[in-house]
Design a protein that fits this description.
The chain has helices at residues 3-15, 19-34, 38-57, 67-79, 84-103, 130-138, 145-160, 164-168, 198-216, 235-248, 259-270, 275-282, 287-308, and strands at residues 175-176, 181-185, 191-195. With 312 residues, it is mainly α. The chain folds into two domains: 3-103, Tyrosine recombinase, N-terminal domain (DNA polymerase, domain 1, Orthogonal Bundle); 130-308, Orthogonal Bundle (hpI Integrase, Chain A), CATH 1.10.443. Strands 1-2-3 form a three-stranded antiparallel beta sheet, with no helix packed on it. A hairpin with a 4-residue loop joins strand 1 (175-176) and strand 2. The N and C termini lie far apart (83 Å).
Length: 312
């Protein structure tokens, strides 16, 4: 049998397949051609089965759709308060599926071709006010090695705006106490120098002198902030430590692993820092990534104006 005959036979069998069978064959092709993971394939299946279930309610099958009908489906998703981000992902699944059906001759044209992606607003990062940050930084009061370490880590994090991954992976060699800077290896192995500030330098010096040797024990590791076992701490462990100290400080606001990084950027802008300077300190390659913090800063400025201006 020739390749052309095989292809025609395959198209014929696909044309008569039920919707779920079409989805199954499409996912098999994705697995064979692109080697996608089981989780990714499962996500595609969920998206397409959700579409098929909705089409059933309007008396249509997967291969009996047009641009307008799929547009109605996307509107239906958004009306159910499903996020624009998840709807974009669902549309991506649909695009791949219908392009496959066109390629296999089941459909003559792609019904997703003219559909626009739902706009996804960039989420504002969670941050803390300056008063809450002060309470958080003041929470570790003891002189145990772990408390000295956590105190130094919190101070360094707020002073520099490092990513948590950058913080926990710091080595002794990345700190220059004479110049008061930390050399950071960020995303894409890009290097940047960030000032530490007097408070952070002080608490870092106390920890390195009295707490770090006790955590390392007999070890001679280079990690700056070792765990209780003398090894590099995971970012999850430090996140748990932040939540613990927030609880001690009586802070019940939503937190994220990058809470102090966001506070660092927001508070700098609130006090008049140049956006491009903040971009360099954060290690953002694109200024637009940093600009999201201006929305938070402007919101805070409006609050201050309303509270303190005589005509606010």
């Amino acid at each position: 049998m020739s390749n052309k005959t095989v292809a025609m036979s395959n198209k014929t069998s696909l044309s008569g397949a039920a919707g779920s069978a079409l989805v199954g064959r499409y996912l098999d092709i994705l697995w064979l051609e692109k080697g996608l993971s089981a989780n990714t394939l499962a996500a595609y299946r969920r998206d397409l089965e959700a579409l098929e279930a909705w089409l059933t309610t309007v008396g249509r099958r997967l291969e009996e759709v047009d641009n307008a009908l799929l547009g109605d489906y996307l509107s239906h998703r958004l009306s159910k308060n499903l996020s624009a981000r998840s709807t974009r992902r669902a549309l991506s699944s649909m695009r791949g599926f219908y392009r496959y059906l066109v390629r296999e001759g089941v459909l003559d044209s792609d019904p997703t071709a003219l559909l626009d992606n739902p706009r996804v607003g960039r989420a504002l990062p969670k941050s803390l006010g300056e008063e809450d940050v002060e309470k958080l930084l003041a929470a570790p009061l003891g002189d145990s090695p772990l408390e000295l370490r956590d105190k130094a880590m919190l101070e360094v994090l707020y002073a520099t705006g490092l990513r948590v991954t950058e913080l926990v992976s710091l080595t002794v060699g990345q700190i220059n106490t004479r110049q008061g800077v930390v050399r950071v290896l960020g995303k894409g192995s890009k290097e940047r120098l960030v000032p530490l500030g007097d408070e952070a330098l002080h608490h870092l010096a106390v920890f390195v002198r009295t707490g770090r040797p006790l955590l390392l024990g007999a070890g001679q590791g280079e990690v700056l902030f070792p765990s209780s076992r003398g090894q590099q701490m995971t970012r999850q462990t430090f996140w748990h430590r932040i939540k613990y100290w927030a609880s001690v400080a009586g802070i019940d606001k939503p937190l994220s692993p990058h809470t102090l990084r966001h506070a660092f950027a927001t508070h700098l802008l609130n006090h008049g820092a140049d956006l491009r300077v903040v971009q360099l300190l954060l290690g953002h390659s694109d200024l637009s990534t940093t600009q999201i913090y201006t929305h938070i800063a402007q919101s805070r400025m409006k609050e201050l104006l309303a509270s303190h201006h005589p005509r606010g």
